[in-house]
Records
---
Amino acid sequence: MLADRERQEYLILLIVSQSESPVGSGYLSRELKNYGWDLSEATAGRLLAQYDTQGYTTKVGYQGRVLSAQGSAKLKELEEKKQRTDQGLEFFRVLETKTAEELIDVLVARRAIEREIARLAAEKATEDEIKELRYIQRLQQQRVEHQRGGAAEQDVAFHRVLARAARNKVLEGAMELIRQDGQLAPVLEYIRKEVHSVVSLDHANIIEAVADHNSDAAEKAMTDHIENLIRDVKKYWNKVENQG
C-alpha cells in the first residue's frame, strides 16, 4: 500500500474528483471517515488550502474545491503507484504460498507439452511468426539489460506465439490451462533474477532452431530451457533454506 501521507493525498484527490459539486472541508472530513481517516473539519480545510497552493485543487468561491488538471495528473500518478504496490504485495504473497515441488510440477508438465510445441513450430512456423518471436526476444533482452522493469510479459508472449505457430489447438489449450495462474511468470522471473539466470538466451536458441526448421534441435532447445528453469527453482529454494 501507499505510505500514509501519499494514501491520504490519494484519498482526498479521489474524493474531490468523484464529487459532482465543489468539495468543502465538512464534506471531505465526513467522506474520509468512510476510509478510516478521522480528520477534523479544520484539518481537512487546511489540507485543501495546501492543495490549492500546490495547484492540485482550485477554489470555487465559497462553495469548495474542484480538481485541477495538475490534480488529475497527480491522482493518476498515485493510482498507478498504488496499483504497482498492490501488485507487488500480491506477488510476494503468491511466492510465499508456492513450494519448490509445486513449481517443479508445473515445469515438468510444461516440458512434456512444450517440447512437442517446439517440434511442431519448427515444422509449421511462418516467416511472420519467426519475426514476431525474434522481436519479443529482443524486447525481453533489452528490458533485462537496461533494467526497464520485469520481462515476464514478454516471456508469456513468446511461449504463446510459439504455441500458436505449432498449429495444434489441443497443445495450445493445454499450455493456456497450465498458465492460468497469472502470477507464475513473474514468480519464475523473480527466481531467475535471484539466481542470476538469463532466460532470453534460451529463447534465442529456440528461435534459431525454429527458423532453421530443425525439429530435433527445437525440441532439444525447449527441453534445455525448461530444465534450466527447474534447476533455477531448486537453486533458489536451496538458497532460501540455507538462509533460514
---
Amino acid sequence: MILAIDTTHEVGSLALVEGGQILEEVTLDGGDGYGHLLFEALGALSVQMKDVDGFAAASGPGTFTGVRIGLTAVKGLGEALGKPVYGVSNLEALLGFGDGLVVPFYDARRGDVYARLLDGTEVVMPLARVRELVGREVEWVSFEAVDDMAVTLAPRVIAGAVGKLAEKRWLAGERPDPAALDANYVRRTDAELNWREA
C-alpha cells in the first residue's frame, strides 16, 4: 500500500493506493498553508503508518513552500519507518487523465505554463511556445480550460494519480532512499527571479 501526498497547489490531497486502486482520497484546503492540517489529516486515515509499504509525494512543479512541505513529510515518515519514498512529477501524474499522445500543462504564472513535452522533458515557458515545440496533434490536459484550444480537464486532486505511479515503481522493485528525494521546481524561485530582474 502506498500513501501519497500532494501539497504543491492550493488544493492538496492525500491518497491510499493498493493494487492500482485508490482506496481513500482526501482533499486538503491549502489556502492557509498545509503545515497546520497535514498531520491531522494523516492521522484521520483508516490505516496506521507502520502498515504502509511506501510513501510518495507530488514533487512539483508547484509552489515552492507547498512542494517542500509534502516532500519533507514523506521523507520524515520514510526515515522514521524505514520505508521507501517516491517523488512523482505533477506533470507525469497528469498524463493519466488523458488517452494516447498527451501533453500536460498548467499555469506557472508570469505568463508561463509548466508543461511536459512528448520526450518527457519538463519546461516552463509561454503556452504558445509549448504548442510550437509540440507541433502536432495531441491531447492537451490541464487543470483549467484555455479559450482557443481543446483541453481535457484534469481534477485538482491528484494524490491518487501520484500514488498509482509510485506503486508501479514499488512493484518494479525500486526502493529509493528517502534522503535522495528532491524537488522538481522546473524554474528558479520568485525571489531569485526578482533579484535577477532588479
---
Amino acid sequence: MSRPVNPMRIFFGIAAGAVALTASIAHAQDYPARPIRMLVGLGVGGAADTTARLLAQQLSIDLGQNIVVDNRPGASGVIAYERVATSAPDGYTLGMVTAAVTTLPFLQAKLPYDIQRDLQPVALATTSSHVFLVHPSVKANTISELIALASANPGKLSYASTGIGSAQHMAGEYFNFLAKTNIVHVPYKGGAEGVRATLAAEVGVTFGSLVAATALINAGKLRALGITGTKRSPLLPSVPTISEAGLPGYESIAWYGVVAPAAMPKPLVARLNQAIVKAGQAAELRDAYHKLGLEPQTHTPQQFADLIRSELAKNKKIVAQAGIQVK
C-alpha cells in the first residue's frame, strides 16, 4: 500500500527549489566579483592558447574583471581538464577545450574525468578549417586525383599531423575512412614540424593552418587541394572544400570552446554564454579571429553539448576503424 502524499513535504520541496533558483539567478547577476581563471591544456602560442587569450582580453572588458589564462600543458590536456572538472562550480574556474577532447576517451583507457558527466559546455568560442596540402612532387592537382593516386598505391603516400589523436590526425583518418584509401599517418610534435616535413618531401600530404600555409601556397612550395570545413575560406577563396572537390560529405573542423564544472548553476552558464557570444561579435575580436583563420561562434550551451556528443560518436568510429592506439 502506498503512503499518502504529504502536502507540506511537497510545499517545502518546491519552496526550497525556488530559493535555490533565486539564489542562482542572483549570483549570476552579481557575477563576476573577482578575477576568473581560464585553464588551457596546451602550451603558449598554439591556436587554443591564442583563442583563450584573445577571448579573455575582450571578456575582461565586457565583464569588468580580469580573465587570467593559465596554461597547464601535459597529457594531451588531461591535466587541465581534470582541474576544471574538480573545481568549485562557481564560475571562477573555466577551461578552454579543443576538438581533441572528444578523441581522448577512445585513446586512453582511464581518464580522471568524463567529458559528458564532469564538464559542462558553456560556449563554443571559435572554429577553423585546415587546408589539405601536398608537396609539388605528388602527382595530383585535385582531391579526386589524389584519391585515385592513393587508391592505386595503398600505403605509399603518407600524411603529417601534430600528433596521435590531434585534429589533423582525425582529419586524415576520416579522409581515409570516406575515400577508402590507406594514406599512412606520421605524427610530429607540432604543426610547424609537419609542414617542414612536407616541404622536405618526407611526407606527401599534411593538413595545414590556413594562415601559415597561405604564403607557402602562393610561393608554389606546397599545393592546396581542399578545405576541410563545409565552406571555402576567405583566406583562400579559390580553393574548394574537400567535399565539393571529390569527397562528398567530408567535414573535419578544429574547434575551441569554454567548459566549466558540471554542477555550475544554469543561470550562471547562460550568463557566461551570452558574454562569450557577445565578445565574439565585437569588431576588434572578430577581426583578430579572422586574421588567424578562426570563425567566432554563437552556439548556445545545448548546441555546444550537441556538437560534443556528435564528435564523440564520430571519433569513436574513426579510432576503431583506423585502429589508433597511443604508443
---
Amino acid sequence: MPQSPQNAAPAPLQVTNLAKTYAGGRGVRDVNMTLMPGSITGFIGVNGAGKSTTLKAIIGLLQPDSGEVRLFGEPASFAARARLGFLPEERGLTPRERARDAIAFHAQLKGLSRGAAYRRADALLERIGLAGRTRARISELSKGNAQRVQILCAIAHEPALLVLDEPFSGLDPIAQAELQSLFSEFRSGGGAILFSTHSMAVAERLCDHVVILSQGRTVFEGPVADAAAHAPHGVYVTLDDDAALLEVVSALGGQAEAFPSKMSNALRWRVILPRNVAYPALMRGLAEKGLAIHGFEPIQADLEGAFWSLAGQDRALQPAQKAAA
C-alpha cells in the first residue's frame, strides 16, 4: 500500500484490492487508488466498469467483499466519512427546496449547529453570486446555478475530500467554468477531489492524476501525462468496403476493429499500426484499392487515445475481425 512521506499529511483516500461481486456477476475485482491532499483525480471507465460500485464503497453505501478503504490514514469509519463530501450523479434536491435551506440542511447532517449551518450557507451563496437569492427555490434557478447549489451542499461542512459523480453532466461551458473555479478554490486549501467522468477532455484539463477502470479492476493509476503516453499508434478510418480495409491493414501488419454502428453504409474503424508504419502508408494502400475514404483521423497521443488502449476489451468499441500479422 502506498505510504505518505514521513511527517506529511496522510492520504485522504486509499483504496486497496477492493472487490465486490453481485448476484449477476458484475461488480469490481481489484480496484486500487491513492489520493493526496490538494490533488484532483479523474476516475474513468465505460459504463459497467465498476465506477459506481467503487464510489459506493468509498462513501459507505455498500460493504466490499474484500479489500480496504482508508480515509485520512485510518480504516474508513462513520467519523472519517464526516470529513467527506459527496455529489451523486442523480441530483437529490427537490424543485421546491430553497437554496439556503438545502445547503444548511446538508451542513447540519455533517454536524454543524443550526446557526453555523445557515451562516455557512449564506457565505457560500455569496461566494457564487447568489446572495440575493437565498429564498429562491431550486426550480427558480438556472440549471447551472442549481448544480452549483448542489455542489455547495457537498462542501457546506468544509470537507477534506470531495467525491463527485459526473459533476459536469448536462452543464453548458459557462456553468462548467464556474464549477471548475469552485474546485480550484477547494484544492488550493488542501482538499482532494475524486470525480467520475466520461469526458476525457475535462479529465485531461482538470486532473493531476487519473485512475482508469476496466472490467472491475484498475488498469492505470498515475499522472495524466503518463497515461497519455499509452496512446496507440493508429488512426480512425470511415469507409464503405470493410473487406478491402482489412486486407490493407493486414498487409501493413496492423489490427482493425469496428465501432458498433454505421453512418449510412460507412463503418468507422479503429486501426492500430506498427510504430514503424506511418499514417500515409495506410492512406496510400486504401487509395490504391480505389476506396472512398469518408474519414481519416490519427489517434491523438492524449488521454482519450490512451483510454481505449488501457481499457482493453471493456469499452464501447466492439471487436471486429483482427487483421492477421
